[in-house]
Design a protein that fits this description.
The protein is α/β, with parallel strands linked by helices. It has a single domain, classed as TIM Barrel, CATH 3.20.20.150. Helices cover about 45% and strands about 10% of the residues. The strands form 2 sheets. An 8-stranded parallel β-sheet has the order 3-2-1-10-9-8-6-4. Strands 5-7 form a two-stranded antiparallel ribbon. Helix 8 packs parallel to helix 9 and helix 11 runs antiparallel to helix 12. The protein binds 3-O-methylfructose in linear form and magnesium ion. 3-O-methylfructose in linear form binds next to loops.
């Protein structure tokens, strides 16, 4: 419903704290226990990778995969939760070392297509109609390794394959400009929206905009959201925060730049984001320093910050804003916003 928000996160957002330079610092929590935390933290939706739902799926047959996914669906129902989306995890298997859909090895590309079909079976079994695709390794470390025109064609073909295989789903592309690659083929919202038009079903291809990814591309998250909204293609969001051009930090929403967070909430709230059932999705990580017992605060805090910002968006004096825009007094408008964020 317009003006009311439902929140989601993925089980990977409660994690052990390993990073490229050090091992886990917290114990693993089993999936069933994580599910029990959702409602307590104020969340109704679960985001999935295909193998979050069906671990070890590459070693199972299609029927076994569906059976396992249906068991997970029952677990969700008994917790009063729903699946928001399923994303194919196409970056850990040895066959995805050189990318998945854009691998230079045809056998590896075929693996990616087959895995995506199994993922679509899981989508059905979990009772959702949304797929998210993050193109983790669809890019290069060096430009000479692949042909970008060919690669974009391969990505479009793979989208088509999914859209034809399961005609009920919509696909939200999650653009990210780098990491793990030096450069990816779908780095921004514009690229994601555009590639939809290379498929047979452009209306069914949209975006999942992640704050940190947009910042890494040197762009503004609220403007990217506005762009997607103008095309009616904002199928989901991955809210978090990011302190400049570093590794993908996945900080709590609003924790780095409150005003940037305010503007994301503002564009969403002003255009009734969520009225067609879209979730406010988070993709946040607890800091590595966080101890076991308090390693879900980043989730509850992000949700609280979002809801407080909704209040601030709605209590902003719109007449004053309008007047200052008419007067072209943007210095005063700047001050009005700062004062509002500081509670003055
Ligand atoms: C990477 C991401 C991913 C995607 C997830 C769902 C692990 O930077 O943001 O999170 O969001 O794979 O597509
Ligand atoms: Mg994400």
């Amino acid at each position: 419903m317009a003006g009311e928000y439902r929140f989601s996160f993925g089980p990977w957002n409660i994690h052990e704290g390993a990073d490229p330079f050090g091992p886990p610092v917290r114990d693993s929590i089993e999936f069933g226990k994580k599910l029990k935390m959702y409602k307590k933290l104020g969340f109704d939706g679960v985001q999935f990778h295909d193998d979050d739902a069906v671990p070890d799926m590459d070693n199972l047959g299609p029927e076994q995969i569906v059976k396992k996914a249906k068991e997970v669906h029952s677990m969700l129902e008994s917790e009063g939760l729903v699946a928001e989306f399923v994303a194919p995890r196409l970056w850990e298997d040895a066959r995805t070392i050189d990318g998945a859909y854009t691998s230079n090895d045809p056998a590896c590309r075929q693996y990616a297509r087959d895995r995506s079909r199994r993922m679509l079976d899981i989508v059905d079994a979990l009772g959702t109609k949304l797929v998210v695709v993050w193109y983790a390794r669809e890019g290069t470390y060096i430009r000479e390794a692949k042909d970008s025109k060919v690669a974009v064609g391969q990505i479009a073909e793979a989208l088509n394959d999914m859209l034809h295989y399961n005609t009920e789903v919509k696909i939200a592309i999650e653009p990210k400009p780098n990491e793990p690659m030096d450069q990816t083929y779908i780095p921004t919202t514009g690229h994601a929206v555009a590639i939809g038009y290379l498929t047979d079903y452009p209306d069914r291809v949209g975006v999942n905009i992640e704050t940190a990814h947009v910042v890494l591309a040197g762009l503004d998250p609220s403007d990217e959201m506005g762009f997607a909204l103008a095309y009616n293609k904002l199928f989901s969001v991955h809210l978090n925060d990011q302190n400049g051009l570093k590794f993908d930090e996945d900080r709590a929403f609003g924790a780095v730049d409150l005003r940037r967070a305010f503007n994301q909430v503002r564009i969403l709230d002003q255009h009734d984001y969520g009225k067609d059932g879209q979730f406010v999705g988070l993709d946040v990580k607890a800091m590595r320093t966080q101890k076991q017992e308090v390693a879900t605060k980043h989730l509850a805090n992000s949700r609280t910050i979002f809801l407080r910002l909704v209040e601030l968006v709605r209590s902003l004096d719109k007449n004053k804003v309008e007047k200052l825009i008419q007067q072209r007094d943007y210095e005063e408008l700047d001050m009005l916003i700062i004062n509002h964020l500081m509670g003055k």
